[in-house]
Every structure is written in structure tokens, then in C-alpha cells.
């Protein structure tokens, strides 16, 4: 891959065959993308934590239902697979 | 109704951080953007800038995750492409339909997208959005939150008139 990321720009106002340009990103554009990447990573961690929390809640509910005397199959039927 | 392919871009071997269509003529009625893409990292989002900005976009989505469903609101139209962590050589697909793109009114936008993965975790989404701006749309830019579009990713722009 190219060392410097590029962007593809298609200028539809130009004649066919002259429309496409491949342009290296400027330093400010690269820095902007780095900020976005950090934000995306932060959001991914939030999402993963939310997923883990939901699974923990589900398992806790299953355990309590089983402790009440339901079979695991019955508890899963109530809670969902 | 006539559907005219304006341009198709296929990303080359070096990848690309964004794909932009500029100079979109205002002589059509609606726009359709089709995306087939794969990201070099682990993110499947591919937001859309309209006329150089993601401002004034808002919408709602319904998403299936492979194990469950969820819904929510979003401040940007979000195309789907495959993250590079998903099954090798597979690509995600999205379509974005923009109504009355040259009219002096706010624009309604609908989209659907899927990612491909030979595992439980996979996604599909439909969404309805508003671009609350009365300017004619003259440019569309697809980009990634992180990573780049890998080789063989494509974006095609159609004008419906």
C-alpha cells in the first residue's frame, strides 16, 4: 500500500477520461483521520462493554431462574437464546 | 424513469481513504449511490459527506447484528463495508438513495447495507435520513472512520431522471 493515504476524486464536470484524480492526503487531513480513528476506537470499546454487560445480565437472569428450579432449557426459552 | 450510470470507481492496489464525486449535474431527479467495500482495519462504517460536510444530517436506523436487533438515531448517513477482520475476500454492500437532490428543499435519504461474515457476528441495516439543507447536491464523499478502502472496493453513482 501507499505510504501516504490517498483520496480518489471524480470530477463529473470534466470530460470522460479526465475525471479521476488520485491525490495524497495533506498532513491536516491525515491528522483529522487520526482523530476520527481514536473516536471510532473509543466508540468500539463502549459498544463492546455494553455487549458484555448485556450478556452478563442475561447469564445472571438465567442463573437465578435455574436456581428457582427451572431447567436450563426452560430458562433459555424464557430469556431467549 | 431513466437510471443512468454516471461513474464507477474501483479502488486500486494502494487503497484509498475516501472516494468523492464532485461536479454532479443538477439535471436529474434522484441519486443512487452503490458501494461495495472492505476496510483495511476493523471498522464497518462508511459515512457520507454531502457537499463537503456531514452537518445537517439526521436519521434513524434498524439493525440486525446476527444475534439480536437494535435501533437508534444517527447524525450521519452510514454506508456499510466489511471490516478486514471478517471473512477473507468478502465485501460489504450498501445503497444510498437521495430524493430530489437538486430541488430547493430538504432531502430525504434512505439506505440499506449488509456486511458479509462467515460467523455469527454480521450486520444488516436499513435507515431513513434527512439532509436538512435546501442547496442542490453537487458532491458526495465516502470515507472511513479509520483504515482505508481496500483494493477492489467500488462506488457507483447513478442519476435517476
Could you describe the 3D structure shown?
- The complex is a heterodimer of chains A (81) and B (161).
- Chain A is of the alpha+beta class and 81 residues long.
- Chain A is 60% helix and 14% strand.
- Chain A has 2 helices and 2 strands.
- Chain A has a two-stranded antiparallel sheet.
- In chain A, strand 1 and strand 2 form a beta hairpin.
- The radius of gyration of chain A is 25 Å and the shape is elongated.
- By secondary structure, chain B is mostly beta strands.
- Chain B has a single domain, classed as Jelly Rolls (Sandwich), CATH 2.60.120.
- Chain B contains no helices and 12 strands.
- In chain B, the strands form 2 sheets. Chain B has an 8-stranded antiparallel β-sheet with strand order 1-12-3-8-9-10-5-6, with no helix packed on it. In chain B, strands 2-11-4-7 form a 4-stranded antiparallel β-sheet, with no helix packed on it.
- In chain B, strand 5 and strand 6 form a beta hairpin.
- The termini of chain B are close together.
- The mean pLDDT of chain B is 93.
- Chains A and B meet through strand 1 and helix 1 of A and strand 1 and strand 2 of B.
- Strand 1 of chain A pairs parallel with strand 2 of chain B.
Amino acid at each position: 500500500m501507499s505510504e501516504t493515504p490517498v483520496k480518489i476524486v471524480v470530477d463529473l464536470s470534466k470530460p470522460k477520461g479526465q475525471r479521476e484524480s488520485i491525490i495524497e492526503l495533506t498532513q491536516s487531513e491525515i491528522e483529522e483521520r487520526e482523530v476520527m480513528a481514536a473516536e471510532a476506537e473509543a466508540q468500539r470499546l463502549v459498544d463492546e462493554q455494553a455487549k458484555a454487560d448485556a450478556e452478563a445480565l442475561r447469564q445472571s437472569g438465567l442463573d437465578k431462574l435455574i436456581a428457582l428450579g427451572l431447567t436450563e432449557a426452560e430458562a433459555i426459552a424464557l430469556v431467549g437464546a | 424513469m431513466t437510471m443512468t450510470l454516471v461513474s464507477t470507481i474501483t479502488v486500486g492496489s494502494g487503497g484509498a481513504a475516501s472516494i468523492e464525486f464532485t461536479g454532479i449535474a443538477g439535471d436529474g431527479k434522484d441519486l443512487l449511490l452503490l458501494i461495495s467495500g472492505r476496510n483495511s482495519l476493523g471498522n464497518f462504517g462508511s459515512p457520507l459527506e454531502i457537499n463537503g460536510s456531514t452537518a445537517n444530517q439526521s436519521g434513524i436506523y434498524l439493525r440486525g447484528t446476527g444475534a439480536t436487533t437494535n435501533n437508534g438515531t444517527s447524525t450521519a448517513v452510514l454506508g456499510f463495508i466489511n471490516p478486514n477482520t471478517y471473512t477473507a475476500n468478502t465485501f460489504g454492500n450498501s445503497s444510498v438513495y437521495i430524493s430530489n437532490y437538486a430541488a430547493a428543499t430538504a432531502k430525504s435519504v434512505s439506505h440499506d447495507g449488509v456486511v458479509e461474515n462467515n460467523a455469527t457476528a454480521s450486520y444488516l441495516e436499513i435507515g431513513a435520513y434527512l439532509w436538512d439543507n435546501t442547496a442542490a447536491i453537487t458532491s458526495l464523499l465516502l470515507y472511513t472512520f479509520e483504515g482505508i478502502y481496500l483494493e477492489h472496493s467500488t462506488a457507483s453513482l447513478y442519476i435517476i431522471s
